[in-house]
Structure formats: structure tokens, C-alpha cells
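Hi U.,

Before I forget, here's the chain from the pilot set. I'm dumping it here mostly so it's searchable later in email.
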Amino acid sequence: MNKKIKIAAISLGSLVAVAHVGLLGYVLRPQQRVQQPPAFNIPHGPYSSYRIKAGKDGYEIEFRADDPKVLESTRTLDLDKEKRGLFGGGSEQRTEYRRDEYTRNGTRNIGGATDAEGKSAKEVECLIADAGARSQGAMAGSAITAGVVVPAVANIPYIGWLAGGWALLLGQKAGSELGSQVGTVFNDC
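Structure:
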């Protein structure tokens, strides 16, 4: 009986050893994993579009938030008509071709660069120059008023502090207006 137990124990031990070796071989061998593409959370709306290209080396995304950007309208009129009326004769030949481009909000493209409000590049440049000139003029007006006018009116009894603030604000506003006029002249707007 002792021999049967030994054989059974050796057989069971061998079976467990072979199973462990097989399991270790399965776990430790390099596995070829199928790479899952990442989940993309792309914002979309009624005028957006996107295209995704995926391959072994990676992926590429092309996204347009406002597509189509330009809408087109084409009108064509060809008229070759011979008039045969009461008194006969005559012919008419007209050819009309018109192609317009529109933005989504209905603004017609008349050529030249425009921004969202329909301003040309020159108008936008003038607006930016005017904002800078106003800012510089306001700083200069504040500085001049703070150095000359505010000390004079600050000594007025009871309301000197209030009059000094008013004078500073008035100088800032006057400097802003003057800066705008000077900027208009220098920037040819």
C-alpha cells in the first residue's frame, strides 16, 4: 500500500509540476495584443465635420468646427429667342452668369478679407490703432492731470479729495479723445 501511495503522490506531484510549468510558459511568453483605438470625444454641431485616419503607426485627426464656411449660389440665364410677332422679325440674345458666395449668416462675400462682422482688413486695423491711441492718450492725460491739476484742487476745503478725483477722470477722458484724434491722423484712418 505504501508503494501505491508513493506512485499516486509522484503522479499528482508531476501533474501539478507540469501544470505550473505550462502556466508559467503561458504567462511569461510575449503576447500579441490587439491595440484598441482610443475613444475620441470630438465636439460636433450642425456645421462641424471630422475625419480620422488610423494605421499601424498611429492616427491622424482632421476637425473643422464650422464647415461649410462658405456657401455658393450660382445663377445662369441663356436666352436665344427669335421674336416672331405680329410684324415678324427680330431676335434677342442674352447671357447672364452670376456666382455669389455667402457666409452661413447670410453675409454676401464681395471680395477682400472680412471678419465676422463684415469689416475689411483696413477697418479692423484702424479699430486696433484707435484702441491703442485712446489707451496711450488716457495714460498721458492722467499723468498730466495728476501732476498739475490734482495738487491744486486737492487743497480745496471739504471737497478737495472729490474734486481731485473728478479732475483726474476728466483729464483721462480728454487724453483719450485727443489720443484718438492724433491716432486717426497718424494711421491714415
